[in-house]
Amino acid sequence: MGAALGAALGLALIWIPAVHVASLIDHSMERWSTIVVVICTLMATFGVDAALTGFLFLMIEDRAACRRAKELHLRRMLRVF
Length: 81
Hints:
Helix content is 86%, strand content 0%. The protein is built from 3 helices and no strands. The mean pLDDT is 84.
């Protein structure tokens, strides 16, 4: 999903005239390779950021679940005594 958002942003940056990315690409020697590099860089950046964000959310959720399990275990042990 992050890579798709990166590709969409790259295409939007190229096609929006107010950003002037298209004029920079037009002045480059290899237009198509420049477009591919810009879009692939944004796709990779967004994809890695989405993966890291997902990993962070999983770690936070796992920590909360672990804390709840410890509290539940402690409550069960206190009932025994």
